[in-house]
Amino acid sequence: TMGGGIAMSFADFGYDVKIMDASQEGLDRGMERIRNNYATSVKRGSLAQDEMDRRLARIHPVGGYEDIAQCDVVVEAIFERMDVKKPVFAKLDEVMKPGAFLFSNTSALDMDELASVTKRPEYVAGTHFFSPANVMKLLEVVRPTKASPETLMTAMAMGRKIGKISAMAGNTDGFVANRSRAPFNSEMVILLEEGCLPEQVDKVMIDFGYPMGPFAVGDLAGLDIGAEGRKRRALANPNYRKLPIADKLVEMGRFGQKTGAGWYRYEKGDRTPHPDPEVAAIIKSVAAEMGVPQKEFTPTEILQRLLFSSVNEACKILEEGKAYRASDVDVMWLHGFGFPRYRGGLMYWADGIGVREVYNQIASWHQQYGDRWAPSKLLRDLAESGTPFREAKPAPFV
What we know:
The chain is α/β, with parallel strands linked by helices. The chain has three domains: about 1-170, Rossmann fold (3-Layer(aba) Sandwich); about 175-290, N-(1-d-carboxylethyl)-l-norvaline Dehydrogenase, domain 2, CATH 1.10.1040; about 300-390, N-(1-d-carboxylethyl)-l-norvaline Dehydrogenase, domain 2, CATH 1.10.1040.50. It contains 17 helices and seven strands. It has a five-stranded mixed beta sheet with strand order 3-4-5-6-7, sandwiched between helices. It has a two-stranded parallel ribbon with strand order 1-2. A hairpin with an 8-residue loop joins strand 5 and strand 6. The protein is globular and about 60 Å long. The two termini are about 30 Å apart.
């Protein structure tokens, strides 16, 4: 799916693209999906038929590695597993011409580890496209330790040439965008344990300015996708906070829109989310098993529990030198996660509240909820000095 969207991104801006797959069946499926996407645009009137034909003519399905050996740039977009990507990168290193850039579309995997299977680590970088790749504007360029300045500049410029907004990230689990978003994703489920319902949380975020609430977005993306990420983080971190309500839905086969049920239920052929009494019962049952006290939440409490968790994580990312500046976090949230534009971005919005107020609330939740709310050192320092997030001086970028 991602490979087709990435190919369209290049073809849309006049570039010839070769696409390959491990099987002819997969290649045929990918081309069919591309044709259908363009045909939908023609049907809606946003693309002329002759322009669709021109764009399709730029996309060339090929049979094997030898057919792409002379390309200047390769963007690998296979399944998000290191054990699957490594053999592909080793083969690309073997067949690609000297000086060819090897980019990986990954949302979280260690780019240093992936680069290590090649003899050209200086030509390797991460290029995290957001889904759907032919629509979403953000390109997160990930810097492995050995990547050359030329490689990073090429990746950034590549994004601009295909209409993306490129932002640089250090090589950390989840990079900048998904790592800063991860506490939000956990906190929204923890709120359910404490007495909220999905539709209540979604309403708060829609009222804030999001086009969709986070639970409806989860159903659209597929709850099984999030479950895979939780498994990986749990293996990497023995202290990882599990989310039994989310896991329970996945165990029941409630993957979201594609199965007709997730956080919401869906009528056949209709993507409208409907609150589901079965989900409310599951939430209540799991919360009782966990012994979590129930409470009523105001919209402000819900909003701050979600967004302050990510502000704190963004401060940790800056503290570690994995992002250049707070405004880069804003760019990623605006163009990768649909953060309301008129609010300026996550950190800009937090500056409007005030760094001391953000810190005091997080410190209070640290006392109440424990280590997941431990304030970052940078956040504490900013609060003590009264320095806004926009003027934060992160550690040297690594």
